[in-house]
Amino acid sequence: MHEPLLAGFPTAGRRRTEPVLRPGNTNCGGCGMSIAFQMLDRALEDRAIQMVIPACCAIVTPGQYPRSAYGVPVVASTFASAAALATGLAQVAQVNGDPVRVLCWAGDGGTFDIGMATLSAAAERDEDILYVCYDNEIYGNTGGQRSSATPLGAVTTTTPRGKDVRKKDIVGILAAHRVPYAATVSLAHPEDALRKMRHALDAHGFRFLHVLSPCPTGWKSEPAEGIELVRLAVRSGLFPVYEVFEGTRTVINVEPELSAEALERYLGMQNRFRGDRLDLARVSESIRADWKRLRRLAKEVEA
Amino acid sequence: MPAERDGDEHAVTAELLSANHAAATAAALAGRANRAGRGFGGGVYPITPQSECIELLCRQEIEKGRIVRVESEHSAMAVCMGFSLAGARAFTASSSNGLAYMAENVFAAAMYRLPIVMMAVNRTLGPPWNIWVDHGDTLMLRDSGWIQFYCEDNQEVLDTILLAYRLAEDARVLLPALVCQDAFVLSHTMAQTEVPDQAAVDRFLPPLDLPHRLRDRAVTVGGLDLPHETEVHRRQLEDALRRVPSVHAECQTAFEQVFGRRPADAVVPYRMEDARIAVVSMGTTAATVRRAVDEARAGGQPVGGLRVRMFRPFPELQLAHALAGIERIAVLDRDISLGHGGVLWSELRGAAPRGALVQNYVLGLGGGDIRPEHVSWVIDDLRARCAAGAPEMMEVA
């Protein structure tokens, strides 16, 4: 029933009998994570996966024991442990020649904050894991507190006047580990998203996907406008769509407009940006600085 | 040069090993024994005085074995959980603040019902930093659902790790097991240790078949519980721990059949036959207690020693049996539950005979050297008492 949200996303490749996330899950309407799971579902085709999910909305959504809305094997890990637990699964699979692909599916809290050391270590060891971070830019599961992925100016339950520092550059951090593949995924660009998910599923070593995941509950936005918000985040330059191979080759996948109109619409459609600390000039300046750096990185490859 | 002993059913090598190396040797033997199964995995992170154990483990050739050098103890246990959930035999080792840092995943491993074996070198929790022995670190984990053994010598460390795998992996148990040894007193002290050959270990440890290992079925391991499910899951854990004593006895017999020596019971008595006074302890303190008991016996005093080898599940019945008829009991704790007293004392009181005088002595914290004269002083103090008092905080260093 979410099909219209997929904006013509190709469905032909799907061969699984069960979706990754089945009906009956408890996600809010308009949850970006639900859409990301639909995209993963299509990217998977008949690949077998096991998922490790730390504390986050994705481990609440399947419902309580003994039922589960997940259509694939899942381990619920402790908050900081996803990449380490997945290491064990992936290594045993490798030793025994199991064809299964091991995924971590974690929120921004489990990735940018509490799981950072574990993630960094697994990336450094180049474990054969696909790590997907669905980033709703808050601790959504605990009621919307700020994380280090919360953007400048956003009001959360622990930054009542708006956050006064910028979010971490997570793909930059992963690229600095020289992992085989690190990319951002826009839910508003399904062909690009599908290509990246397929590449990341088939590549070996540590792969990282960063998905901007709209959260109507935390962003105080309309559930039906999630994809539009992601499109505006991309158009405004706030969410660059790019990929980094081996930590060196940077490719920009979607050219942004970098328009003030897109940025103002993006911020205006979310009540989380109604705090008195929101400084539009500072947000614009940070976007310009990020793109200057990103273009330099992409140009270095071309040169 | 290791000496080969001929004439036995299996080749046994006597080697001069520290208890750290005895532990790594045992883990490698157990790991290789699962090559017919899903293999072996170790998650390793250094901490004094345990590091020599993982260093030796990293030098072992283990078919279908993987060692992951993680970035923290918390991840060491997490990677073991991954190994185990994938059906491999898993091992790690830690100590002191490392165990405190790992604690969240220690509890998780038991709740996932994973038969991971961990060797802990007992070391004082800091700050201030102190690398010497006391038992406060592992006793902090007593409520985690892990089986806990406290060893007295290097051979016992090696044997108990092998025994622990068999016990932990038994379908009636499926719980992780912690094998503890005293820092430096054992960890860095070389002793002649019999190392069994791989064929014997293969016979003792059949391939692990974890019933709930992750396969291709769409299950969610460790999802959400409502209160009723949690009540049931906790009871299942408790029931499994309660089954440990009888399964342990079977494992002891199986061990004896394969290796020709019987691992000690949960409670180890020394000259308790006609004793009216008992001195109870854990770990290497028990060897010192034996010296003091011998001296007291030579002086005509009816004193015996009891060593608690298995702390979880707590051997209440065995203790009650061993303490029947005892009038005065000294409990030596190399630990303290601050604001209460020794942990062993606080648990043992329930197993003591009605009317017995049970006095707690807290000694040897931070590696303070417990000598026979300290135990003799304890025995004299216990005999002179009219009633038990507050825990006696002794300074022996």
Account of the protein in words:
The complex is a heterodimer of chains A (303) and B (397). By secondary structure, chain A is of the alpha/beta class. Chain A is built from eleven helices and eight strands. Chain A has an eight-stranded mixed β-sheet with strand order 2-1-3-4-6-5-7-8, with helices on both faces. In chain A, α1 crosses α7, α3 runs parallel beside α5 and α9 packs antiparallel against α10. The N terminus of chain A is likely disordered. Chain B has a seven-stranded mixed β-sheet, sandwiched between helices. A six-stranded mixed β-sheet of chain B has the order 11-13-12-15-16-17, sandwiched between helices. The two termini of chain B are 37 Å apart. Chain B is globular and about 65 Å long. Chain B is built from 13 helices and 17 strands. Helices cover 38% and strands 21% of the residues of chain B. Chain B has 397 residues and is of the alpha/beta class. In chain B, β3, α2 and β4 form a beta-alpha-beta unit. The longest helix of chain B is centred in the first third of the chain and has 16 residues. The interface between A and B is large, with 41 and 42 residues. β2 of chain A pairs parallel with β10 of chain B.
Observed structural traits:
heterodimer; A: 303 residues; alpha/beta; eight-stranded mixed beta sheet; 11 helices; globular; B: 397 residues; seven-stranded mixed beta sheet; six-stranded mixed beta sheet; 17 strands; 38% helix; disordered N terminus
